Amino acid sequence: MNIQSAISFRDILFSYGENPILNHFTLEIPPGEFLTVIGRSGSGKTTALKLINGLLSPTKGEVWVQGQNVAHADLIQLRRSIGYVIQGVGLFPHMSIEENISYVPHLIEPDNPELKERIKELMKIVNLPEEMLTRYPANLSGGQKQRVGIARALAASPNILLMDEPFGAVDGLTRKNLQKELARIHKELSLTIFFITHDISEALTL
Question: What is the band of 2 on the pLDDT scale with cuts at 50, 70, 90?
Answer without folding.
Answer: very low
